[in-house]
Amino acid sequence: MIRVLLAEDQGMMRDALVLLLNLEEDLEVVAETDRGDDVVPRALETRPDVAVVDIELPGRSGLDVITDLHQRLPACRVLIVTTFGRPGYVRRAMDAGAAGFLVKDSPGHELAAAIRRVLAGERVIDPELATTALAVGPNPLTERELEVLAAADDGATAADIAKLLSLSENTVRNYLSGIIQKTGARNRIEAIQKARRNGWL
Asked: Where is the HTH luxR-type domain (predicted)?
């Protein structure tokens, strides 16, 4: 029997997935949670073979959970299942150690098949997403540039960002200029939109 942990914050979706997976003769959902910060404790408690994790979770992002799960419970394979099929998310998930990445509009039978495949050591990625991720290419921004861009997301001024990140205003302006150039955007609003659309932020 393949033991599965399910992390999904939408109650109806979580209940439907539990029912769907438990219908499979060789699958059993041994734990479920609606919070990202609860995934690792529940996994350590129940020792699942595969953790099916959403990206957008309260408490902690599913992308952040992957690394901890990989370190604390190396035998547990992580399969990301999300509404957000952004190329950058695929790359970040795989770089963090996820074994698979599916979008929620995939047919139901594909989830059960993907769980079996990742447990067998395969990597499973939605084909359309894989193609898009290759076309978009890697994230061109550094961690610091991403911090500056995230701080700019709510319309903050260079002074606001400088204060928040303990930088000078000139340094912030230089970062923003570099970000705009690297992303091929016309301004920082467009850079933010592009970074979000590609899953870099």
From this structure: 134-199
